[in-house]
Specification:
single chain, about 200 residues, alpha+beta, Glutaredoxin, 4-stranded mixed sheet, 8 helices, 4 strands, globular
Length: about 200
């Protein structure tokens, strides 16, 4: 009963949050170590509370960006697994709010680094650590103005056949998770691009 009361209170409070000056659209950019204008696009559908995504961030994403950064565009897409990860949607929304302050990727890095501490209080604490305007971050998050942007990614993922996280795509083609498999797909896409020139 207490949980239901807290949930209803949160919903009612979010309806009362001032949204003036806030933007419901995503303002995240491709990864800064990638090339926003690259023809080869690597897309990752991920959940900030997913332990497998945390491992992939360190052992797949970072090395891929180190190897191919200037040759690929790297996009992050939200795929919160809400049925098993209680804070996944809130973390995604807060990351989008951080993007409005130019710190989306820093927030993602910190969320994965401190994933074991993820809860509602941690989301704002991470904003402080990133030297964001925490009052603005909190107002953005509590307004739920970014919910549709996060869920839009989720729906796109479902339409592309995503069933779990992390899921990787190279130029729209699903690739099995792993540095070697992703690297092979990128090499093939780069070679195909060169042949067309």
């Amino acid at each position: 009963m207490r949980r239901l009361f807290l949930l209803l209170s949160f919903v009612l409070l979010s309806a009362c949050v001032d949204t003036s000056g806030l933007n419901g659209q995503s303002s995240r950019t491709p990864h800064p170590k990638s090339n926003a204008n690259a023809v080869v696009v690597v897309m990752e559908f991920a959940d900030l509370q997913c332990p497998a995504c945390q491992a992939a961030h360190e052992h797949i994403v970072s090395p891929i960006l180190q190897k191919y950064g200037s040759q690929i565009r790297y996009d992050f897409m939200h795929f919160p697994l809400r049925s098993i990860h209680r804070y996944a949607l809130d973390a995604g929304e807060t990351a989008e709010c951080a993007a409005d302050q130019g710190k989306f990727w820093e927030f993602v890095d910190l969320a994965y680094k401190k994933q074991a501490d993820l809860n509602y209080d941690a989301l704002l604490q991470w904003g402080k650590e990133l030297e964001l305007d925490v009052a603005l971050l909190e107002r953005c998050w509590k307004s739920r103005i970014k919910k549709s942007a996060v869920l839009s990614d989720y729906e796109k993922g479902k339409s592309m056949g995503v069933m779990g996280t992390p899921s990787f795509f190279v130029n729209g083609q699903k690739v099995e998770s792993g540095f070697d498999t992703l690297s092979e797909a990128i090499d093939a896409a780069l070679a195909a691009t060169k042949q067309r020139l």
